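Inputs:
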Amino acid sequence: MSKSITPQEKDYSKWYNDIVVEADLADHSAVRGCMVIKPHGYAIWEIMQHTLDKMFKETGHVNAYFPLFIPKSLFEAEEKNAEGFAKECAVVTHYRLKTNPNDKTKLIVDPDAKLEEELIVRPTSEAIIWSTYKTWIQSYRDLPILINQWANVVRWEMRTRLFLRTTEFLWQEGHTAHSTKEEAVIETEKMLNVYADFVENYMAVPVLKGVKSINERFAGAEDTYCIEALMQDGKALQAGTSHFLGQNFAKAFDVKFADKNGKLEYVWATSWGVSTRLMGALIMSHSDNNGLVIPPKLAPVQVVIVPIYKGEEGLKKVSEHALKLKADLQSKGISVKYDDRDTQRPGFKFAEHELKGIPVRIAIGERDIENGTIEIARRDLLTKEVIKVTEADNYIADLLHAIQKNLYDKAIERRTKMTSYANNYEEFKKLLDEKGGFIYAHWDGTSETEEKIKEETKATIRCIPLNNKQEQGTCIYSGKPSSQKVVFARAY
Amino acid sequence: MSKSITPQEKDYSKWYNDIVVEADLADHSAVRGCMVIKPHGYAIWEIMQHTLDKMFKETGHVNAYFPLFIPKSLFEAEEKNAEGFAKECAVVTHYRLKTNPNDKTKLIVDPDAKLEEELIVRPTSEAIIWSTYKTWIQSYRDLPILINQWANVVRWEMRTRLFLRTTEFLWQEGHTAHSTKEEAVIETEKMLNVYADFVENYMAVPVLKGVKSINERFAGAEDTYCIEALMQDGKALQAGTSHFLGQNFAKAFDVKFADKNGKLEYVWATSWGVSTRLMGALIMSHSDNNGLVIPPKLAPVQVVIVPIYKGEEGLKKVSEHALKLKADLQSKGISVKYDDRDTQRPGFKFAEHELKGIPVRIAIGERDIENGTIEIARRDLLTKEVIKVTEADNYIADLLHAIQKNLYDKAIERRTKMTSYANNYEEFKKLLDEKGGFIYAHWDGTSETEEKIKEETKATIRCIPLNNKQEQGTCIYSGKPSSQKVVFARAY
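Outputs:
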């Protein structure tokens, strides 16, 4: 167990923070609520980006870039959206600093450089993008528009946590425009499925696919689809959302198209996004008291080789074998690092690579060379075994698949254990406090009941699962009739 | 010649703007001075990014991400840097909007949400990064730090032009920390060479490598190295800069390291960047009155195939051959698009692909299939030829190399023609007005002379070339002794 990391069972929240900082993923910055994403964390995020970007392109999307700033008058055009974000907006009011006349080494905001209209730092880009789409869309021939943007956004959060809730975060936001409602709904669902595919098959995190209740809907959407994951501590985490925006933004920005008969119609819209918050979901799905655990498909380094040797001659001998093995593994498409630093001992290196979550560690010593063996340690199970070096490439390729699968299977098993069904409110509260996890319960479908439950228990409706089983019952809170159970949880 | 594009010879500046907008590279936005980078423009930028990113990683760098905002007190810590950017800073002063009490549909800045300390939207990240490095660096073991960041930055420009000078732009900024001056200088030069390699070998734009005069130095640098390119109209464009920052930022943020003997020393620094401005350099190096010309190495689509057919049966027959050709070319690593849109005629498609700069266009008609031929048009020369389809894959692979080389050769030839030597000030002014381009002239080395020449002619010293020929002479302006000729030009 790493000494620098608070054990999960002692304080899960402190454990999380320790992992983020000690595994060199991110750090707090001098700016309130903003994080620095450190090289190891950013390298994982890059793989997430590249994987998702490929998936977006394969589903017909292209990238573009829209301004960071949104003039206030555009921002307020779609009222619900504006209302939803107004309370957490960073606002640019001036465009110049000047020397402080009382202290020449200091700067002050130049009062003569006040903007006529304030600029909002984008918390999301629907407003600026739909004000642009207005100039791009005239006819059905201009549709669909299938654009994605990789960008930073700012939401002024009062309580922040590294990756999970930061004032500035990195994300991608898709913004599509369609000629029919049906096509927009299909797009919304398609992108939800892309997200689910990515989170399950790359991050090894199982998700529930569903629709949000009105209360939890994105401001300005007609429907918000989501994927919900369950963390080790039994709290839910919204891992991605895909919104059917109806014609709300088209109406706010007067974006119409001429259909094949020349009739003018408002355009239909979707938007969808995932963010650096996924890093939080990754950590809280697989990591342990020894540090980070990275699924092989997202690991910047999948295999690290550590030489065990005495003296320069010993290192030379071991290195020869290690570098050959490295080349063999690389030729199988495996990313390998040979850690031959002479400033650190093997034990230090083992602990460091464990802390940073590298899936497979190989040790090669002089005796191994004589025996034609290597020692392999897998990060997920913390087990070691000795194998023949001649079998290493196939063995390790298979092992990486096995680790990926094991992480997913363990997460599924945990979720199954942590999923409960509550038949009444007392049971519901007891489950929440004693077990946590996802709790299926009947709900009368009203926002009022949802708010009461949230007030009293801090649990929210995570989603109404897609293809949910329809069954008659009574709401656990109001006793009113209900046609289905929905999924409650306390959430990040 | 495209009707939508103003000819170069009529108005080069208008031509440039027409290319950017008509070739779907970028557009003006609703935000003063900010651009929208459209999908075609962004796709080229993505290839630039990926290529550079690979080059940075191959030279040992890793990516990270630092906050968008810089607290004013940190921003002003390095005085020269702060002074250099103070006049063009977007300043965040508030973190919330509220409903306008006089008009419930409007929002106003909430005066109760004024920040205690204003935040500067980063115009460059030395300040925020060095305030972070202070916490990362204790000993020589922590050095070097070789970090790059891909980010957006904001500089409040009064006169903006798409790609060349926008309030917000995208860039990368490398920020490295070293234990010795020598190592930092080597890094500065290494990254200048990486930039030169990229701009010459991918963008097909020849550059002069040199050092800036004090006047043109980055605010806070000890030395600014640069690459300077020459545009078609004879104006220079600074394509990238690499700064040796000395210990200026280490001193401003008190960043010291213990050397091997335990002695505390200030850390040495470099920073280096290129931006979406490179898109402007690309356009103004190769494009013509028909539209954009993209060097094959940066083209999102290198080859487009247009079917020539009559009726559905005809399309079916042509498509079969076209798709086979597409697959053949793709297996050679060539990116190919098959444009089988039935909403547009071939002539329209030809003009569109020409406008967008696709390097090679192939036309296949029903008669071609009978003859076993295809028609190939190259964008750079606007020439056409008919070749046997069986030779197509090798032929086109070679052709793409030939186009890349031809663009570079043409640019070199133009630069040679547009490079002059002035022996006195009269000659200098005449050359500037009548010919433009790079003008080598003796300079006395003083800022005063440089400023006078700039005032009187709008020409600046672009650089003092690396390994510049040392020769005795007299300054064209002051008549004082000079030991070398430096390069002047009017510049973007």
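Remarks. The mean pLDDT of chain B is 97. Residues 419-489 of chain B form a domain with the Translation Initiation Factor IF3 fold (CATH 3.30.110.30).
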